[in-house]
Write a structure and sequence with these properties.
Layout lengths: L2 H21 L5 H5 L2 H24 L8 H13 L6 H23 L1
Helix pairs in contact: 1-3, 1-5, 3-4
């Protein structure tokens, strides 16, 4: 794996750690939903994750990441169809999908 791909994977890992820290271990949806700054930050980090995966997958094919296409398309949706993004969709990503992505990225970085 190239250093460039590792850099993208590290960026992804750091974004996930940021989201985990800011959302908190309690993961309370009402807290997330009522905090516009937190929502903007989480959406931005998901954008970065999608872009980094897009770039990494072009350099390292195949990149063993579950649902890589869906992650990239979510990034595109947040950026280009921001009015179609809802809190429930982002929250589901945070609680259901980011933990798996974190594990997969950690495994690739070893």
């Amino acid at each position: 794996m190239s250093d460039e791909v590792k850099k993208y994977l590290n960026d992804i890992f750091e974004c996930i750690v940021f989201i985990e820290k800011e959302v908190g271990s309690e993961r309370i949806f009402a807290n997330y939903k009522s905090n516009s700054l937190l929502k903007a930050a989480v959406e931005r980090k998901i954008e970065i994750i999608g872009e980094a995966l897009n770039k990494a997958s072009r350099l390292e094919h195949p990149l063993n990441i579950t649902n890589i296409e869906k992650i990239i398309s979510t990034r595109n949706r947040i950026i280009h169809a921001y009015d179609a993004v809802d809190d429930n969709m982002i929250w589901e990503i945070v609680v259901k999908h980011l933990p798996l992505l974190k594990k997969e990225v950690e495994a690739l970085l070893k």
